What does this fold into?
Amino acid sequence: MEQSYENIVVDSPQSGVARITLNRPERLNALTLGLVDDLHDALDRADNHHETRAIIITGAGRGFCAGLDLTGFGTIPGTETFGQQQQGMAVQQHIAEIVHHMRDVRQPIIAAINGAAAGGGFAIACASDIRYCSTSAKFGTAFVRLGVSGCDIGVSWMLPRLIGASRAWELMLTGRVVDSEEANRIGLVSNVVSDDELIDTCLAVAAEIESNSPFGVWMTKEVMWSNLEIPSLRAGIDMENRTQILASGTEDSKKAMTSFLSRTQVDWNNR
It folds into this structure.
């Protein structure tokens, strides 16, 4: 997992965990082409590194991510001769692909939200599987206050599923800022802790995840996301049934059953 980047830092603060730190603190970690490319590469590397069991995304300095860098994102290679709208669409799609990428990696992603998570930063927080924030965290969709739609980078799909449609509409139509206490109260985050405790709290959650079967965790993430997209209860249960039978046939599952009955620790082999 060791790799040098210009706009992010990747390290492993404990066994089985990849921490991705957005690292443009002078711009509150605002999104540029370089940062987005680095993030895509880091997610690919983590996904293909099977010893990595969980991913933590956080921000350097006093903010998580302030969204698109309004001083200039950059130009997608190959679009230099495109018109303004066509270039804009290429940028839009490139940023939004982060959400798909986060959903598709096998490992659960924990957002450690410190300071501002606005615009695209808010979308990255929403696209994470688990969210914890510090007392200094602030959340905002922001898009509507910039003269564009409040619906951007998957937020109009994810936010109603996280906090309910009524609250989501209010936040997206007003563009108002939500502090850490309100984020916790409405279920946007699992909990709010002090700034000093944020990373340790996320590491403790990652350790709990790592104590479970790698295949079981992967399938749980896969089915949870798929069932957010699926059209009916029956289709959702059918997917669960197939996944359970598939997982129960693994060597790890058989060992886990034996260990449960004998009250011994399981040594997962991902087989």
Notes: The longest helix spans residues 84-104. The mean pLDDT is 93. The first strand starts at residue 8 and ends at 11. The chain has two domains: 8-210, 214-262.
